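Q: Sequence in, structure out?
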Amino acid sequence: MEDYKRANIPGSVKKYAKGDEAVLVPYFSGGEVYFLNDRILFSYHQQGRADFKIDYSLMFDTNMASYVDALMRGRPLKTMHHRVVAFVDDILNDDLNFDYFYYMAENVKEVKNIHQCAAYSPLKFWKTLSKKFRNNLVSLQLFRSIDCAEYKRTSNPKPRFTHREAARRAINFSHSYYASEEGRTQVLSFALMQRVILLQVIGMVKIQLSSNKSAKHKISEFFDYVNDVVGVYLDREAIVAHKYFVGPRLISMLEKIKKSQKAPRRLLKKLDNIAWDMAAPRLMETLIMSQGMGDFFIPMFISFDGGLKQVLKAYEVKGVVFDSRRGGLIPLPRVNTEDYFKAHGCADALLKISEKRDERSDKPTANRDTVHQLIKREYGVLRKLLSTRGR
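A: Exactly. Output:
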């Protein structure tokens, strides 16, 4: 397998994932991925070859949705203008696939009384959303209706939908996404995972800023925090935490949070945004299991800053094993977690996670209310810590 050189990213997309200025962040760390399932094995055994389809999509987040809204309404993007316009031009010229499922999941906070919205008509539900969110959704519908072949010929980004048609589609799409039983269940499950990650992020920052102790000591404290407070251990976040303790600049989105005479403004919102970025790989995994419009699906995230890239780089995934019928996905990291912590002299600290596995399992299943109360409590402790004079 060392000599396997089949690219998993289409050639039209690959050029946007290279270099320091790359705006695409692929889920898989390497450019080559080996695809295998029962049907491929059977076909290869019977015919000596197997044909299968690979789908891909570029995931839009809130920033990208806002950029699209500005462009569709003819507004400038200030310092980001040239970079975003150049990338959007590439999307249209190369007719690249994109989606905004992450944007929808990220903005579940815009939905009031989500458990009751199934009873609302699409229009009534639409009116409960903020004006900015509604504008973005309409602009995304207009953007997706641009004829890429016509744009490539004329450079005129003319939507095929009228504004009225785009609004109608946005109304129906948002209602079906949040109000359907399947959509609501998926988005709430993902939102709960993001809250768990937020609770872990608060713990990381609190432990990092509490002392000048070694990274080895701090990761031991973090594992205690995971066992005693969070109740959920996550491989990726554990390695991110350790890298942050080793050198805060390795995780720049967290490095910016420091002690001062008073806590930074809108700190919880900043931490929440960090947790959403750190949750992105998990939505990518959900999309991988969906298989898209092919036999396999390759998700890629659009990011104009290096924060998410650092998170994915900290826990590089070389492959996944998943069950498309019953659900469930296991990422296969390039570096085994146990090997990673052993190499950094933290094997004893990691033992705390395995030793307390049953204890964590015996705890009541986390829900939005319990996690919210824990976030409120731990955030209060963090704010108090940040408000003290720096050392």
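The CA atoms of residues 106 and 276 lie 7 Å apart.
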